[in-house]
Amino acid sequence: MTSLLFFVVASFCMVCRGSERDVFLHIFDKYDNRIRPVKETNTTTYVGTQFQIISLLEVNGQQEYVKMAVFFKLNWTDEYLTWNPADFGGTEYIRAHAKEVWTPNFAIVTTSLATEEFIPKEEQILGIHYTGGVDYSFPIVLTNYCPMQNDDFPFDSQTCAVKITSWKYTSRFVFLEHVPMINTGARNPNTEWEIMPHTNKSYDLTREGAGEDGVYRQIHYYITFKRKPTYYIWVIMVPTFIISALSIAGIFAPFNNSGDREEKVTLGLTTLLTLAVILSLVTEAMPKGTKLPVLGLFILMELVICTLSVATSIGISYLHERAVTRSWSIPKMFCFSFKSVACCFKTVNASECKVIAEKLTDKKHSILVKEKSNSGINSSMQHLESTLNDVKRWIQRADEEEVRKNHWTIIFDRVDATCFIFYELINIASLVIALH
């Protein structure tokens, strides 16, 4: 029983193989793959096209091209490749080498370089249905021209058009038409780019001087690549923002309790040097174009902010030094706020005044001891009292001068705080604008 079953199965397999071979010999007898497969010359061959991206290999912004592995699927009807399945053991579908069958003169007009075939055409296989339907699928590596718009880098997206046509046949003889696919996205994702589902449009183009029969059918597949900006945000933009923010805080923070401003210019120049190095590194990654992209504008804005903050700090230091050493009067608006009379006097050396007062006090004491019984004691006392009053006024003025210096320090501290808030707000605004 087992031997009988094995014999039946083996016989069936031999019939199947023999039927497929018989179909092949039958349909390719006197078949010419150089001739368009229609029995009437005026019959149009409709070629359905499908397109899918396998993976994105390279995006070259400077030379404006994208390199990707793509998959094309064509189907059409060959009127000479038909048979009756009943005559060949029920065989409805066979496979054959593409070189032995007529194929549309398929061309990609937007390619920048010659396409690279995964499988040579001599080895490619296509499928043939008993009704004459031919399914031809093949993958290629396509280097396609793609004009780049890099103004929004690294938040940019690029749209490229893959244009296909029949190079030899006009639409009267070969008419290309798109066949929808369920999945129009890429099979393999890319780490730097997000590949969006592609769209398509069909156009009828007339070649110059070709007449009525010079209309060619073109199908344009529009592919959109959206850049993933995460790397540029966290590796370049955020560190640059933090460096600028800390630099502004250091420039407008008091160096010590006395309000001195040492090392602020050095800090600002060091920050500018750091930002210049970052900009030089980013320049290598940024695509070249007529306009500076968003990332370049952001770093340039940070440079401008730090430069202006350093210049402002230098100006404040200059004014502070002049106000203290040149005995500038405090403006009345600040006098009211301080509620002090130290706004209207000139500078006097307090230490010298105190020494004079001590000497005069000793002198007064000695005079009082020696001239107790003198008749001129009254006049001497009056003279000493006048001298001591002058000294007291000088001491009072010296104290007021010290108060004035402290008031100027407070004023410029407030100016520093205002500038700090102002430049930090600009810094935050520049980051928010760049991210949006």
TrEMBL record:
The residues the entry assigns to the signal sequence are 1-18
Q: Give the source species.
A: Plectus sambesii
Q: Does the keyword Kinase apply?
A: no
CDD domains assigned to the protein according to its UniProt record, in alphabetical order: LGIC_ECD_cation
Ranges of residues in domain Neurotransmitter-gated ion-channel transmembrane: 237-323
GO annotation, cellular component aspect = membrane
Topological type in the membrane: Multi-pass membrane protein
Q: Establish whether keyword Signal is in the entry.
A: yes
Entry's Pfam families?
Neur_chan_LBD, Neur_chan_memb
Give an example GO molecular function.
extracellular ligand-gated monoatomic ion channel activity
Q: Which Gene3D superfamilies match?
A: Neurotransmitter-gated ion-channel ligand-binding domain (2.70.170.10), Neurotransmitter-gated ion-channel transmembrane domain (1.20.58.390)
- Annotated Neurotransmitter-gated ion-channel ligand-binding domain ranges read 22-229
User: Keyword set for this entry?
Assistant: Membrane, Signal, Transmembrane, Transmembrane helix
Which SUPFAM superfamilies does its entry note?
A: Neurotransmitter-gated ion-channel transmembrane pore, Nicotinic receptor ligand binding domain-like
Places the protein is found: Membrane
The name this protein goes by in its record: Uncharacterized protein
